[in-house]
What does this fold into?
Amino acid sequence: MSTKIAIARRTTPKKPAPRPELGQVMQGRDILVRALEREGVECVFAYPGGASMEIHQALTHSAIRTILPRHEQGGAFAAGGYARATGRPGVCMATSGPGATNLLTGIADAYMDSVPLIAITGQVPQAMIGKGAFQETDFFGVTLPVVKHSYLITDVNDIARIVKEAFHIAGTGRPGPVVIDFPKNLQQARTQPVWPAEVHLRGYDPDKRADDLALNEIIGLIEKAERPVLYCGGGIITGNASAELRQFAEATQIPVTTTIMGCGAFPETHDLSLRWLGMHGAACANWAVNGEFESRKSPDQPMVQVKPGADLLLAFGVRFDDRVTGKVDEFCKHGTIVHIDIDQAEHQKNRKVHLAVESDIKYALGRLNAMIRQRPIKKNFSAWHVQIAAWKQRAPFHYGLTPEVVRSEHMRGHLQGRESEVILPQMAIQELYELTRGQAIITTGVGQHQMWAGQYYKFTRPRQFLTSAGLGAMGFGYPAALGAKTAFPDQQVIDIDGDGSFLMNVQELATAHIEQIAAKVMILNNQHLGMVVQWEDNFYQGNRGHTYLGDPARRGQIYPDYVAMARSFNVPAERVLYKKDLRPALQRMLDSPQPFLLDVVCPYTEHVIPFIRANGTVADMVY
Ligand SMILES: Cc1ncc(C[n+]2csc(CCOP(=O)(O)OP(=O)(O)O)c2C)c(N)n1
Ligand SMILES: [Mg+2]
It folds into this structure.
């Protein structure tokens, strides 16, 4: 028997490759700035120093808006916020040594959450590299584990190509941060740049497309399933595949849960939405994926199933993060798992799956939708929908007033006799949700307030919830809000922050005022590192290990005075203590044409629930 091999013939004539363009002689610093302009960069968050001031000089002659953060970490987070809000690479810049190392946390944050970020750093002159020169740090080496790619420029003739490649790498495939380290002597050197028209990188092909065989298999699995669930992540948002996801979910009637990174990828107000899953996710989402179990008090007790969970899990643009899976062997233990991701490195990494498909998710969902249009799925999941509706009704996100609030010493004075006037943090977020009609772009710090922001603000569109999810970096919220507001000056951008997190980049109030970036911040001020307190309560009998942020000599007072602090930056601010004052104060914050700080004083005694302890299972869920 002969084997036929089909050889594809090129039927259309080959298009001539676009030609590179020759520029005029100029200095390296100007080549860099022209290259940024050619990439369509609108703004850079840049803090100068000896090794980068040449580039700042060049920026003064450019239409690019240069925003001076008051700390390089703020600049990196702002660029990250800009990138998360727009989908376009954010650009930050710092000098060598300490300037560069101050960017590091922002770079690591972008790496963990697949955010396109370009981090440019000045470097000491080439002749000084390796000599322990003043402000010399091997930033290429320091950042190696937390970048998608990095460059140390060694030839002035490479600048134009490197910038073009850096933007291509940062923004395509699975996005991520790219570092460009730029020695000062090359910033000053002169050459005639060659502007490349295209990027060619051997071995880097971000255009991955699932084959129809695998997609057909997925459709077959859906037709065989009784209890399918879509588990969707940030990949849907970075892949611009929200519309395709919605179409797919509606056509198949498969319920959707997302990760925190995926919040907004599917409207959380939709009937098919289970909200987000994992450690602090919705009980119904955790049950739908894993099944419902009898609550157990300790991990040594057996797991007793009450209701089965998903028999088919469609994991699209996710990475099986431990905050989602808990004990990974128990995660969706009895389901068939299909994993579509553009990054092959995520396949079979954390959780073994039955079918792994390497693909751009927008392409895969678009193709699945086309297949379903041709041959609609006949399966009806109504029994599954009934079960899910019952779970949703039984365990929605909830909170209530407890007598414990008076344990918060910073509340005792003003609450005496008016305990019902207490503002619980969840309540403040709910009010904000209502007043903004769910339309604001929300950023957060890291801690309890972050989880409550995810629970009590419902996100209906992608790029609406900007949070440091993978790295969990306190201090992210306000600078990220500045980045988002720079990109979308006409939208309401609000940082829902913790008192601890906000203080980590409080200096960015100056950037907000001077640059007139009207990002707002609502501090849920519980005078504690609330999330760590919650763990102390659960696992260390409430013994406080340096989790109190107030002034031990004056526990009845609020410390520090954020209102006075904001005013010193010329940023209007108010404090609210009582429920009756909350709504009007929020409204004044929303109406302010300037940046605004609202200090909302809350008790520290609330715990975030649902809660599944680290490496726990759904049987350990407190809800
Ligand atoms: C840079 C950084 N340092 C430490 C931590 C550990 N950590 C996680 S949550 C948290 C408490 C945050 O307190 P706050 O910002 O006041 O938020 P709350 O939990 O009180 O809402 C801490 C210290 C972290 N995530 N990031
Ligand atoms: Mg706090």
In short: The CA atoms of residues 3 and 9 lie 18 Å apart. The chain has 23 helices and 24 strands. The longest strand covers residues 117-123. Residues 447, 498-500, 526, 528-530 surround magnesium ion (ligand 2) (CB under 6 Å).
